[in-house]
Amino acid sequence: MKDTKKINSEEGINKLVELVSELRDPINGCPWDLKQTHLSLLPYVLEEAYEVAHAIRENNPNELKEELGDLLLQIILHAQIAKEKNLFDLADIIEVITTKLIRRHPHVFQTKAKVSMKEVEDSWEEIKHKERPINNSKTPISDRLKLKIKTQPSIKGALIISKKASKNGLEWEKCDEIWNKLYEELEELKDALKANKSSDAEAEIGDVLFTLINIGRWYEISVDEGLAKSNQRFLERLAYIEKHIDGELHTESKKKLQKYWKLAKICLNH
């Protein structure tokens, strides 16, 4: 049964590759697909990745299956475009990631040694450094961090920086010190806003967020997941208010909106 499923999966991939190739056929293909480039498809790659993340957060297997398929389509589209330019194809992509996985897991594919999670993480970082050496640099840690975060969202980038700094000794000794830092940054933000200095305020609100991300790291709380859940709670409360108020929200009094906001929190249990 296992072998049959594997064959069917391979056939399915091959069929999808063939379909994408037909969509990109210069004579009989789809005008929209033919027009696409790596750059024009960029928003769709990001959109599909976020939709995969949403399906995971919603714990919806059927939605996850569909969204992973959409993301896979993006990969195959990019592979087809590259193949047409004689750059690489899907087989090359698979070979690169397969080789990388084997290289970065010597404890599994070479030594067969039993290792701890920390040893795996340390080995992973060491191997990555060898893959992308930074020669003759007086600032190797910051240089590697710049490379690592350049394609990351700001929250993720801040967390990467925070973790690396902590590993290299730039860490608070007590959690109270982080809270004091947060209060300090909040006061500086208030001062910048009172002085009507927008550029300073922008820098200070960044410092506040960076400190909050450090607090999340300290307590092993995902800031990104926390924010995503806050967004969802807000939308659920907003939907509750819309259902219980006749007419447009902006025509209602602030007092009435606040009343229904409190009711939404009670009824939705958040």
Structure description:
With 270 residues, this protein is an all-alpha fold. Among the domains are: 87 residues, Helix Hairpins (Orthogonal Bundle), CATH 1.10.287.1080; 43 residues. It has 13 helices and no strands. The longest helix is centred in the first third of the chain and has 24 residues. The radius of gyration is 25 Å and the shape is globular.
Features:
mainly alpha; globular; Helix Hairpins; 13 helices; 270 residues
Spatial gap, N to C terminus: 47 Å
Which fold does the CATH topology of the domain at 2-88 refer to? Helix Hairpins
For the largest beta-sheet, the strand count, sense and barrel status come to: none
Shape: globular
CATH architecture of the domain at 2-88: Orthogonal Bundle
Short structural summary:
With 270 residues, this protein is mainly alpha-helical. Among the domains are: 2-88, MazG-like (Helix Hairpins, Orthogonal Bundle); 225-267.
